[in-house]
Fold these 4 entries.
Entry 1:
Amino acid sequence: MKILSVMIVLVTMIGLTACNTMAGIGKDLQKGGEALERSAQ
C-alpha cells in the first residue's frame, strides 16, 4: 500500500512537470511567431 501511494505521487509529479514544460514550449513558440509577424510588417 505504501509503495502504491509513493508511485501515485511520483506519477502525479511527473505529469505536472510535463504540463509545465509543454506550456513553456508553447509560450516560446508564440513569442517566436510574434517576432516573425513584427519582422514581416
Note: The CA atoms of residues 32 and 38 lie 10 Å apart.
Entry 2:
Amino acid sequence: MMFMRPFTLSCALALAICALPLPTLAQPGAPAPAAGTTTSALPNPLAAPPKPAAATAEAAPTAAAPVLTPLAQIPGGPVAPSVDAAAWTLVDMLSGQVLTSSNGDERREPASLTKLMTTYLVFQALKAKTIDLGQVVPVSENAWRTGGSRMFIEPRKPVTVDELIHGVIVQSGNDATVALAELIAGTTDAFVERMNREAAKLGLTGTHYADVNGLPNPQHYSTANDIAKLTVALIRDFPEYYPLFAIKEYRYNNITQSNRNRLLWSDPTVDGVKTGHTEAAGYCLVASAKRGERRLVAVVLGASTDAGRASESQKLLNWGFQSFDTVALYQSGKPITTLRVWKGAKKDVNAGFLAARYVTLPKGEAPDLALTLESKEPLIAPVLLSQPVGVVKVSLKGQPVAQFPLIALDEVPLASVFGRAVDTVRLWFTRR
C-alpha cells in the first residue's frame, strides 16, 4: 500500500497536466482584469424588441432598506424639466432608479409627510396583530386637544382603528395620529423612538423625527430622497393597505373632509400618496402613479402654493413616463451563465438572481445596452446556494446604468480527495 500513494499522485499529476487548457494570448492594449476576477461580455437579452416590465414583480423582503440609484447621464438622453420647488426626486419603483433629483439630500421640514412613517408603523402593528381594524380606541385629552388639521375625534365618542387610519391618511388628522401613536406605544414620545428606529432600518440617513405629526421643530427633518425611500417601502411592504391613499374624501363625526392631493381628481393613474404644509416647509406632496406595469413616485418639497405642488408633481410624473422605458433584464431564478468550479463534485454552477432585475432607460435605447460579467476566479468548492459569485455591470453609450450582484443558483459540494488533488495541481499550473 505504501507504493500506491506515489503512484496515485503521479496519476493525478499526469491527468492534471493533460487536462490543462492551452494558454491564451492577451490582445494588445487590452486592460488586465482585476485580481481575483475574470471579466467577460454577456449577450444583451434586450437586443430583440425589449420585454415590458413583468406583471408580477418580486417584492424585496419586508423591512429591507430600499436601494435607490441615480440614473446615469446618458449622452443625448432626456432633459429633466425645471421644477418650481425647493427640492424634488422622481423614482421608478421597479428598477429603483432615480430619474431626476434636485437637492434630494438637503434636510428640510417634512410637515405632514411625517405621517407616512406613522402609517408605516401602524400597518406593521396590524400585520403583527398587536392591534386590529375593529378595535375601539380610547381618545385621550392629549389627542383631543392636538392642534392643526384634525379629524375631530372626541374623548367620549367611540372610534375604531380603521376610522383613525382613514382620518390620518385622508384628512391628515393630527388628533387621529396622536391617538394611534398612544395606542401602539403608550405615549407619543415612545412612538417617536420607534419612528427613528424604523428610519434607521430603512436607511433614511437624512431623517430624524421629533413628533408624530410633523409640527415645526429644529430636530424634525427629512430629505426628498429619504421620503421617496419611505414611500417605496410603504407601497412595497403593505400593498393590502396602500389603496387607502387613493380615497378622495372621508366623513367622520358628521364632518366630510376631502383629500388634499389634487392629483387624485385630475389624473386617474395617480393613487396616492400624501400632502404636507407648514409655513416653514412650504407646500409638499408625495405623488405616485401607475401606468401599465410601471409605478413612479414623485416627491416635491417646498412648493410655493397648493396648486403648484400638484402641477410640479404632475410635470415630473408625465416626463418620467413619456421619456423612459422600464424593462425586465433578467428573470428571477433563471441562470444567465455558468461558472467554473474548482475542487467540486460538479465542474460548474448556474449563476443568476433570486429577484427579477429591471433597468430604466431612455425610450428605445434597450437594444444598445452593453453587459459585462465580473466573476470571482478561482471559484473553489464548496459553493453554497445564494453565495455571491460575481457582478453584472450594465452600461449604455459608455455610461454605467446599473450593476447587480450575481449569486449561485445551485450548491456544489466538495469533490473526492482524488478530485480535489487533481484540481489543486491544475490550479497550480493555471495560475503560474
Note: The chain has two domains: 30-50+331-430, 78-326.
Entry 3:
Amino acid sequence: MSDPKQPCPKCSFEIGKLLYCTPLDSDIYYCPKCEYKIQAKCDKCGTWLTVLERYCQKCGVENTFFYSTP
C-alpha cells in the first residue's frame, strides 16, 4: 500500500508512514510536533486508527476518535 505523507489535522506536520509502521508502547500516538492525539486503538478490536478514519477497517465499528475541528 502506498502511503503518502499524512498531515497532522491540527498543525499540518507531515507524519507519513510513521503512523502505520512504528511499534507503539501505549494505546495513543501523538503528533511529534504539536502533541495532538492523532492515532488510537479501536475500542472493539484494537486495530490502530487515525483521526482520518471514520470506521475501523477491520471490524467496521464507528471510530469514536474520528477527527473533528480541534
Note: Residues 1-70 form one domain.
Entry 4:
Amino acid sequence: MTTLKDVAKRAGVSTATVSYVMNQRTNKVSESVAAKVRKAARELGYQPNMAARALRSNKSNIIGVISEDIATYQVNNIVQGINQEADAQNYHIFLGDLNLNGKIWHDGIQDYGKVFDYRSQIQDKIDIFRTIGVAGIIYAGMHDRDVTGLVQTDIPLVYAYSYTQNEQDYMVDNDNQQVSMEVVKAMIEKGHRRIGLISGPVDSVPAYKRLMGYQTALMNAGLTMDPELIAYGNWSVCAGEKACKKLMELASRPTALFVMNDWMAVGAMKVLKSMGIQIGKDIVLSGFDDIDLCDFVEPSLSSVSLPLAEIGRLAARKVIALANGEKDCTHREELPCKIVERQSFCFTGDGA
C-alpha cells in the first residue's frame, strides 16, 4: 500500500509538503511543487485515508448522502446538485442508496408509508457514515412528503425534497403552493372560468398546498371554488382517467384542467382523446413534475418543473455550513418551481 512517505520520496519533497498538498493547503507550497506532488501521487496510485484525516484534524470534508433510490429522476437530479456543490467547496460525497423504488408497491401504487419499514437500513447507512467520519448527512427523498421520525442521528442532517414536522430540523423543498397559484392564474388570464382540478390524495401535504394555490388563484380573480370541479386520485394513470371521466360528465364541463402530477395528466389525456376533445383547443391542460414523458405525448404536455438540482445544491451548502458550526442557517427553505408551457396549454379562445 502506497504511503505518504512513498509519494514524498518520488516527488523529492518532505512528507509535510505532501500533506499540505493532499489537504489542499496549497498556500504553503508553490504551484510547481504541488503539481509535482500530485503527479507522483497519481503515478503511485496513492489514495489519502479521508477517515483518518478527519479523526486527526477533527474536521471532515465528506458528506454522507442517503438516497431513497438513485434510479429515480428526482433523487438522481438532487444528488447531481449535491455533488456540484460538494465539488465547488472541495467536499466529497459518500452515497448510501436504499433502492426503495421497487420495494414500496402496494395494491398497484407506491405506498410511501412502507419506507418506514426500512429504518434499520437507514440506520446501517448512518453507522457507516459515522465510521468514516462524515461532516454531515443529507437525506434525499424520491417524493416530496413528511418523513417525521424516519431518520435518527446526532450528525448534522438536512432533508432534501422531504420534510418533517420538527421545526428544529433542516429541510430544503420546492414551493408547491405558489407555482400552483401561478398555473391557475395563467389559465384564468387566458379566459377560463371553469377550471377543473385533479388532486392527489386528501392526506398528502403537497396536494393540500397545491389545492391552496388553486383556491388562492380563484379567490384573487373573484371566482368561487366549485367542489364539483375537483376530483381526487392516487397519482397513477388510472386515477387520472377515472377523475377526468368524472369531470367530463358534468353538465357544464371544465375548459381547463390542472392535474397535480404528470402521470394522472396522461390518464386524463387518454380520456379526453377518447371523447374527441382536442387538447390545447377545446380544453387546456397542465400537469406537475415535468417528467421526460411530457415532451413525447401528443400533444406535448405543459407541466411544472421542479428545482431538484438546486434543492441538492442548497442542501449541500446548508449541511456544510452546519458542519462548520454556523448557527444562523434557515431551518426550512422552499425553492420556486417553473411552469413549462407546451402544446397542451396554448388555448387562445375565450374559454368561457
Note: Residues 174 and 334 are 5 Å apart (CA to CA).
